[in-house]
Task: structure prediction
Amino acid sequence: MSRRFLTILLVAFVIAGGCAYMVYRIVGNRLGSAKPATTRIAAATTDIKLGQILTPSDVTTTEIVGPLPQGAILNPKDAIGRGALSEIYQGEPILQSRLAAPGSGGGLAATIPKGMRAIAVRVDQVVGVAGFVTPGMRVDVIASGTPPGVNDTNEGLVSRIILQNIEVLSAGTDIQKDASGKPQQVQVVNLLVTPEEAETLSLASNQQVRIQLVLRNPLDTKVNKVPATAMSNLFGGPAPAPVHAGRRERKAAPQAYSIEVINGSKVSQQPVGNIGGKH
Result:
């Protein structure tokens, strides 16, 4: 093999290696530029319950590829000490909308949206579906009583739906949803209402009115216009007059009267008529 041929072969290898290196650099730069950017944001290290105040052990960071979710918290310190407005699961990003405002604390108060109110309604084991009401469910509120100006009798009772599609905030002291769906016997249910609805419910919660909760499908949000129902409407009209058993009272017979007629030495009685009768 001649030296000239070896030289040409060596030059060819050098040129091929240089071309391969240039192609590698170009392709590598393009692949590197196409890699999406990543950002670290705050995430939950464990399941966080509704109303729970976040501690440093509840918050970590996770890497997000691509655009950030709206309201994402970048610094975990910004989430510590704030109450959860809804359940946050392990590994889920922590968003501003899922936490209460800084300084508002946790518990039931932190779950009340702006402009709304929480009002307590006393219930018992017999009133409606009190034993089956859990946080997050929807109910209607029925008030039964005697309207003002009506005699306090059973015939004057009226029942009316005063509130519809009301969210239950808590059943007793429990503000968490029961995952197993078990009924809870409680004495007080907190409802989420507007200030106007709170006034209506406060008036209805007196001793003369009976409050009843009616459970509804959470997907059924329609509010219907339902007229009030009176006790007399249950039986299709007014009740018939009562019939008293026993003997009837006899009317007293009219008393007859007469006048005394003296004709000379003769005295006679002349009947004239009856008292209460025709003359």
